[in-house]
Amino acid sequence: MTLALERPAPAAPAPARVHPRRVVIGFIMALVLLGLSIAASLLVGTREISPGTVWSALFNPNRTLTDHTVILDLRVPRTVVGLLAGLALGLAGALMQGVTRNPLADPGLLGVNAGASLFVVAGIAWFGVTSSLGYVWFAFAGAAVAATIVYLIGSLGREGATPVKLALAGTALTAAFTSLITIVLMADSEAFDRYRFWAAGSLVARGLDVALPLAPFILVGTILAIVAARMLNTLALGDDLARGLGQNLVTARIVCAVAIVLLCGSATAMAGPIVFVGLAVPHVARWITGPDYRLIIAFSAFFGPTLLVTADVLGRIIAQPGEIEAGLVVAFLGAPVLIALVRRVKLAGL
């Protein structure tokens, strides 16, 4: 008698083992750094305000005092915007690098920034939009449209939306949108003057009226990022093996794409096209956690806000009595960190 032996279905891969002590210490450091950046954002500015006054303004506010008004109306909203935008950019960068398996992926790779910028330019030049709150919805719509177009183009063909095709489609769309932006701005000097302030990437003049309407989108994007973390661990093995393990590639990429649109669109709408946070933060997280995207997503949620808020604080200090936009400072902060990581870790593939 012969026995028919059925080949067992392959089990889902276990994430690479990470030293628990390293993760715990990294998590504590992330919390401490985030707390310090928030405190610095509330304390530092062109107007010197003591820590006691800041504490009083937060927990016993008195609107008749000028210092309390500065804290409540300027520094608190600015800090909240930095935290939300940094959270969104950090998570979006981790998702982009995971779903495309490209270590250089950031919000610019899939055309998100270019789409947001094009729609903001259109809003300024053709619809007379002048306020930050007005830019928000144009930027969000542009990011969503760009990501949708990139995914549709990348899905053409027999293999569907592969990482290489998505990256190429995003690069091509970015080039096309950038050309359109240049054409519009060259024909309208007033639109150029307004656009360049938004495009620099800054937390200045961004208040709660901008942040609060976009907070629900960031919340949904964060939840989707958490859900996608396990999917990214499987996708990192390659399409063929992921499919053999039972992973629905279309579903995984759609979940990641929706999360990226929500996160990148919201962050770009709030703070402008800040690109380096989403590029550098996942690498810092990966250096601590290893390749497990469940941990990379968690750490990126802390490091993103810390980097952006810290950059904003430094921008207030180094150019007093003026300021340097956070988007410019982020590049100076993040570039050395990323160079050091590239020298220490092989980043050819994720």
Automatic annotation (TrEMBL):
Can the keyword Transmembrane be found in this entry's annotation? yes
GO terms of molecular function: transmembrane transporter activity
Annotated membrane topology is: Multi-pass membrane protein
Localization recorded for this chain is: Cell membrane
Q: Which Pfam families match?
A: FecCD
Which segments of the protein form a coiled coil according to its record? none
Biological process (GO) annotations held by this record are: siderophore-iron import into cell
Q: Where are the transmembrane segments?
A: 23-44, 79-96, 108-129, 135-154, 166-187, 210-233, 254-281, 293-314, 326-345
Cell membrane found in the keyword field: yes
Its primary localisation, in coarse terms, equals: membrane
Q: Which GO terms describe its cellular component?
A: plasma membrane
The record's section on Gene3D superfamilies has: ABC transporter involved in vitamin B12 uptake, BtuC
Alphabetical UniProt keywords: Cell membrane, Membrane, Transmembrane, Transmembrane helix, Transport
Cross-referenced InterPro entries, in alphabetical order?
ABC_BtuC-like (IPR037294), ABC_transptr_permease_BtuC (IPR000522)
Stated family: Belongs to the binding-protein-dependent transport system permease family. FecCD subfamily.
PANTHER family reported for this sequence: FE(3+) DICITRATE TRANSPORT SYSTEM PERMEASE PROTEIN FECC-RELATED, FERRIC ENTEROBACTIN TRANSPORT SYSTEM PERMEASE PROTEIN
The protein's name is Iron ABC transporter permease
